[in-house]
Amino acid sequence: MATDGKLASIGEKCQVDLQCAANNKAHRTIEISEKRLLLRRGQSFDINMFFKDGFNPQKERIELAVTNGPNDTKTVIGFTEELNERRWSAVIKSVTKNELSLTITSSPRAIIGRYSFSLQHDYENISYFLGNFVLLFNPWCAADEVYLNSDVQRKEYVLNETGTIYYGGSDYICERDWNFGQFEEDILDICLNLLDNAPKYLKNAKRANRRRCSSVYISRTVSAMVNSAHDQGVIQGRWSSPYTGGEYPGKWSGSIAILRQWQKSNFKPVRYGQCWVFAAVTCTVLRALGIATRVVTNFDSAHDTDANLTIDNYYNVEGDNIGGSSDSIWNFHVWNESWMARDDLVPGFNGWQVVDATPQEESDGTYCCGPASVRAIKEGDLEYNYDAPFVFAEVNAQCANWLVFADGTKMKMDVDVLNVGHFVSTKKCGKDEREDITHLYKYPDGSTEEAEIFKKAKIVIAEPAPEKTLKVSLKVNQPICLGQTVSVSVVVSNKSSEEKVCTVNFWAKKKMYHGNTDKETIKKFKKEITIPAVEDKIIPLELSYKDYGTFPDMYYRMRLITYVTDKLPENNVATMKDIGLLNPPLTIKMMNFNAYVGEKAHVEISFTNPFALPLKKCSMSIEGNGLVDDQTRVKFDDVKPNALAEVRCDFTPKKPGQRKLLVDIDCDLMQNVKGSLKIDVQKKK
Questions:
Q1: One domain, residues 601 and 567
Q2: What pLDDT was estimated at residue 9?
Q3: What is the DSSP annotation of 31-57?
Q4: Which of 423, 457, 491 corresponds to the end of one domain?
Q5: Which of 312, 420, 593, 659 is most open to solvent, judged by the fewest CB atoms within 10 Å of its CB?
Q6: Which helix (H) or strand (E) covers residue 649, if one does?
Q7: Residues 307 and 412 placed together within one structural domain of the fold
Q8: The pLDDT value given to residue 96
Q9: What residue ranges of the chain have pLDDT lower than 70?
Q10: Could you tell me which residues are beta bridge partners of residue 103?
């Protein structure tokens, strides 16, 4: 075999050196391996051959052949005077009596995947196997449809093995680090196996393989295969407990463990994931294959099942969603953007494309979404492939919230957020900061441009709630740490010139991130108040840990709802507000002065118990590409009420360079407490 970069026999005639380390370094795949030939299409590479009995290129009349695909489709490459950058070509770089050096380039539109190549005579049926290689998309090649003309962006969206995912709510945005790990050596093979397990490939492998030259086809395939709705996909989704037989989605901190488990189980779906897990694994796969990809979060994200671009939510007076519509507003939703040309569309829609692997609605009979041009979404050009209307609704659907009384009458509420699609967020290039990219998806709320786009998309702008002499709002000081008391102010304003006597009703409930609330009410409050003319009345309330206790998921969300009744029903008003509590921050520090490859490193993780109760069943897991082979879990002692906890652990770095250690802490009263530390690992001198 000629796959390890060393001399390998191809018979008695000659030996070959694939120069794996040098070629992989030039093709920016050296982080994956120094022993396998891993190339990017449209870029040249060199190989050397050594002949025992001498070599005469004019007499030998040789040519190269590369084969790919289930039927070993062959492309024959004759030697030319100079390389042709638009197709497969090869030149003789140098030749002596015993050595032949070749420079070869692949087509910038070549099929991506596994290849083998051989040297053959052009006049007789004799060939010599040279070796195997993998060919990937090439964002550095101007002729490749995934070309991205920015070193900073290529470094972030192709080469960076860690990233940040934003979650929570538009009232307070949280973040968590993720280990994409696309350059772990086995991950690339798993990603190629993912393509081989796609239903279209299993049905007609030859036809599906021919389409692997297209980034549109590949991204659409990956979108379908990362979820398991219709196939042997990677992740099984689950949006509420119980999570029996699998991991709670919040436990995952990286893609490597998920992809390895899927491969090891003979491609059985890994349990369980939610939107950010689907998006993170999709990012790993597409970056591994060479497509620049980033993770994007949309806050107050609409799920418009009937495609009418209107979300009507109906609540009873205790804040329960009582149905009437299958549409919903999620606290947030996470998808991907991938950079590519859209030669399948009219000009103007190249660039970032939405790709969403979360199984929400079928697209051409498959649970996948995209690629949908971000520019087409902003401009309301929804007729272009793929799934632009669905994504457009996620950021633009009109939302109306209704309060339904026991007698069936309903009232439109005043709410803090009238529309969907806020703080569309991604990690900023080269920095651990959030970048707001809402302007790429939509024009400013209330602008003339927005009105024109709504008109084009045939959105009927919802009528605002009518002005009334009473007004009510909810004020909460944030951020609030889990375990602490939440202070809420119900502010009732009398806009009339007369004194008013009215009744204030208040409820608080736990809320899941997909929009539903618990049936159980955390707290109820009812009081009759008198408000002088043109004055405000502030009613202070508190929600203690004893009131709210543990939560059904990792977001610690609550829905507050209040309505105020007047003697005249037409003056009744209501509003609601969603809030979230936070885990305590982690402090992570290196105990060594420096970190070196192959030498044990020591870290200390500390945090303060926010509860007036002890923390029990405490454990910590760490992972990090190039730092820890697999996720490592450590148990530690109970933590006293409001006390400082300090936990130490060690690991042995495997790779040099800028690395990131990811930490996750779980206890009986709080879960998925996340933190990270950048570590500069040096080679030992």
A1: no
A2: 42
A3: TT-SSSEEEETT-EEEEEEEETT---H
A4: 457
A5: 593
A6: strand 644-651
A7: yes
A8: 85
A9: 1-13, 54-60, 122-125, 305-308, 319, 324-326, 414-419, 460-465
A10: 46, 91
Pick from 477, 530, 543, 466: nearest CA to 504? 530
Neighbours of 408 (CB within 10 A): 6
- Judge if 203 and 329 occupy the same domain: yes
Q: Is 178 helix (H, G, I), strand (E, B) or coil?
A: strand
* Contact (CB, 8 A) for 301 and 330: yes
And the tokens for 196?
């081989």
Please check whether residue 259 is in contact with residue 283, taking contact to mean a CB–CB distance below 8 angstroms: no
Task: Point out the domain boundary residue: 519, 552, 582.
Answer: 582
Distance (Å) of CA 322 to CA 167, 171, 313 = 26, 24, 8
Torsion of the alpha carbons at 663, 667, 670 and 676, rounded to the nearest 10: -10
Residue 347 falls inside a structural domain: yes
Q: What is the dihedral of CA 278, 280, 285, 288, to 10 degrees?
A: 180
Domain that holds residue 225: 151-160+176-457
pLDDT digits (tens, 9 = 90+) for 628-677: 988 889 999 999 999 999 999 999 999 999 999 999 999 999 999 999 99
- Alpha carbons 370 and 337: distance in angstroms, whole number: 9
* CATH number of the domain enclosing 480: 2.60.40.10
Give the pLDDT score at 209: 97
Beta bridge partners of 510: 558
User: What pLDDT is recorded for position 414?
Assistant: 57
Minimal CA–CA distance to 209: which of 339, 85, 68, 331?
68
At 410 the pLDDT is 84
Give one DSSP letter per residue of 113-174, joined into a string.
EEEEEEEEESSSS-EEEEEEEEEE--TT-TTSTT----HHHHIIIII--EEEEEEEETTEEE
449: helix, strand or coil: helix
The DSSP result for 297-330, as a single string, is EEEEEEE-TTSSSEEEEEE-TTS-B--S-S-EEE
Reply yes or no: is the peptide bond before residue 57 cis, omega within 30 of 0: no
Other beta carbons less than 10 A from residue 213's beta carbon = 18
Asked whether residue 551 falls in the same domain as residue 646, the answer is no
**CA 583, CA 554: separation in Å to the nearest integer?**
9
Between CA 447 and CA 620 the distance in angstroms is 49
Does 570 lie in the same domain as 447?
Answer: no
**Is 85 domain-assigned?**
yes
- Predicted local distance difference test score (pLDDT) of residue 128: 79
- pLDDT at residue 518 in the model: 85
Q: What is the pLDDT of residue 171?
A: 85
Contact 333, 325 (CB under 8 A): no
Looking at this protein, which amino acid is placed at residue 113? G
- Asked if residue 212 lies in contact with residue 309, where contact means CB atoms within 8 angstroms, the answer is no
| pLDDT for the residue numbered 445 | 85
pLDDT (0 to 100) of residue 124:
58
- Model pLDDT, residue 55: 64
- Active-site amino acid positions: 275, 333, 356
Whole-angstrom CA distances from 549 to 542, 545, 552, 643 are 14, 5, 10, 19
- Tell me which DSSP letter residue 417 carries: -
Reference 529, options 541, 538, 519; nearest CA is 538
SS (H, E, C) 605-624: EEEECCCCCCECCEEEEEEC
Per-residue model confidence (pLDDT) at position 2: 42
pLDDT at site 57: 58
